[in-house]
Amino acid sequence: MSHEEARGPAELAALSTELSYKLLVEGVSDYAIYLLNPDGIVSSWNTGAQLAKGYRADEIIGQHFSLFYTAGDRVKGLPQQALQQALTSGKFEAEGWRLRKNGGRFWAHVVIDPIYKEDGRLLGFAKITRDCTEQRRLQDASLESERNFRLLVEGVTDYAIYMLKPDGTVANWNSGAQRAKGYSKNEIVGRHFSVFYTEEERADGLPQRALETALREGRFEIYGWRLRKDGSRFWAHAVIDPIYHDDGALLGFAKITRDCSAQKKLEEERRDTENRFRLLVEGITDYAIYMLNPDGTVANWNAGAQRAKGYLAKEIVGRHFSDFYLAEERDAGLPQANLNTSLATGKFEGEGWRLRKDGSRFWAHVVIDPIYREDGVLLGFAKITRDRTEQNESAAKIMFLARHDGLTGLPNRAQFMEQLDTSLAACADTSHRVATISIDLDGFKEINDAFGHAIGDQVLCKLAERLKKLVGEHEFVARFGGDEFVAMKYYKSDKALRDFITRLHKALTTTLHLEDTDMTPGASIGVAIFPLDAQERAQLLNNSDLAMYRAKKSIGEKICFYESEMDEASRMRRTMARDIWVALEQGQFFLNYQVQRAVNPDRVTGYEVLLRWRHPELGLISPAVFIPVAEECGAIGAIGDWVLENACREAMQWNLQPKIAVNLSPLQLNNVSMIDRVRNVLAETGLPAERLELEVTESALVGDKARALHILQEIKAMGATIAIDDFGSGYSSLETLRSFPFDKIKLDRSFISELETSRQAKAFVRAILALGHSLNVSVLAEGVETEQQLAVLQQEGCHQMQGFLFGRPETLAILAETRSLQAIDLAPDAVATTLLAQPQQGLADGRP
């Protein structure tokens, strides 16, 4: 009979139950669950305990559990008190700071239960600890927010802000309320808010109706008289909002009252002023407003008249209004004729030149109305004169801007299209042709980023002046916006077209002399010809754009003529854009990891996550090919989210706890929702924040730096680290390193590749390493491929390295198989799937 057969059914069932409990406890990762001997010595240790406190079982079993307490708590005897309370009360439960293996602290919720044998003897203690640091942080933040809000409300002195209970009694009282209404908090809290209303309003039930309106409509707002403690009245603007519990129960009302007595007094004074001048200004709303006596002499004078005509009131009152007319008009009797028209028809209105005090002329819109007393006697004339010189000039300017670019004065899109249509129609029955020329300035965004938009505008204006000067007969140049220009040539000989293009190119590439600097611009030029390349306007412009984009991507050729193959390339990019979205849906993307190693001591510090795409028909597609297309079609954000989530999920299969470095795209870095995205991914996957490193290129920061800084700071506050990638390849500046919370500088591979042959490269590397040491920021060299490069970097004191010398990018399964990493625990199906997705050797690293 076997050993198992010798056991009875009850005993086997008990063993099965114990095994189940053992597997359950050992598998729990969110709680530290372990046993203590009666004397407090650790006797067991689960996975959650290792994750929470950092000790492996073989490091902690046999040690006293008091080492998790701070030194101060041990001096106070708290560990032994906890065991004693568990024995006395049957359970010990508390919260407090505990220590991890690395010395770090975490806020813990602790439960200790005594465990007894069946005969009543103490077996030991069951101890459960949960890391509540984040909950404590959120609770502290909430309390701080409530405290700040309370101090804010209590400190407001211009507004009376207080709460009413559901029955209308005052529940609290701020300093603004005391200032406005005269009651101290002790005098008013508990009394009904109707004491602020007049006796008539209370009798009419207005206070209760106010509360009922607030409940029915969600808000009550009114202006009216309210009473102070001393019985005096003040004009108040009052708002009442109902406040509800989360469960929908009415908590009470928030009431805000502002003393508007001063504003009301000003309003009343304004009305008095308006009444005094009603006869003068009734129906008249223009600028220079004054009265004329029946004989045409000026009776009064307002500020608008002084501004328009230059006379002070004392200089003009009593003089005849004909002084404002031109000499020839006075001689022709025009001033009196205008008064006669006003009397005959009830109004004179006209426009003409008028004179200022200094003799200058302005174009005036004039209205003259006769003013009569109630008995019909003529009091005089109300006269309004409006200076419309600027409006006339503005109208002309508006007409100009409707057909011209506001910054450069070049023709705009609308005028260009009209001219193009005219030219296309003109060559329909002739041997002439029409060429459209699309122009895009090279590096214009970089000019704006480096020198500011003011310098960028100077560049555009100076180039526009050059283009205006070179335009000849049957030639046309316009600006469509930004750094986008377009030109057109109506021509017969190819030589004429070549000459025009040559003049354009020279104007766009000759050095500019600006106020503070000189710079040499550049331009990409695309040409399409009617009727050879297109039969109608839209296609012609589209084809010249395609040619321009080809020129922009070309290293040497900056003038390209349209070729039919360009349409095919455009169609291929559109097809790839659609395939990218399909790839996201069907799981065609997968991840590779490239090892990162510390130099001293030599050890693995982490793995950079690299994106790969296996197309079902085209096979492996280089990230250098599909990433630009993903950015154009808007898929880069979704791809970035997919990489982050899957990298964190796969990283949880590594028991050696290496960091993973995930690249952030500029789109992600400029979206504040990225903060919640990172927080949610860490929570959903269970990856500790300290195992996540996010890499950003400096070029991704040049847009909205303030927003990027906020996002990086919030993510770093979670515990993740931040690295600046490809440092030295673009916008690298000390200002960036000073402003942003980087933990690591990744030295661009271009300097490492030249390290063996270029003194300048070695000097640059040495300078960046010195900078990293001075800033206490780790420096990682990318692209290390030879032992000689390794030796130089070690000699210069480089902290970390990455490159083919240490390992090519590989999947988790390949790393587990080729490197014998027992720490990678992949299910068989996952290994098989990852093996199918092996990348080709030499595939360029790509980053989302």
From TrEMBL:
InterPro entries referenced in this protein's UniProt entry, alphabetically: Biofilm_reg_signaling, EAL_dom, EAL_sf, GGDEF_dom, Nucleotide_cyclase, PAC, PAS, PAS-assoc_C
Pfam families: EAL (PF00563), GGDEF (PF00990), PAS_9 (PF13426)
UniProt domain PAS: residue ranges: 17-90, 145-218, 273-346
Domain GGDEF: 432-564
CDD domains: EAL, GGDEF, PAS
Residues in EAL domain copies: 573-823
Gene3D superfamilies noted in UniProt: 3.30.70.270, EAL domain, PAS domain
TM segment ranges: none
Name of this chain's protein: EAL domain-containing protein
Native source organism of the sequence: Herbaspirillum lusitanum
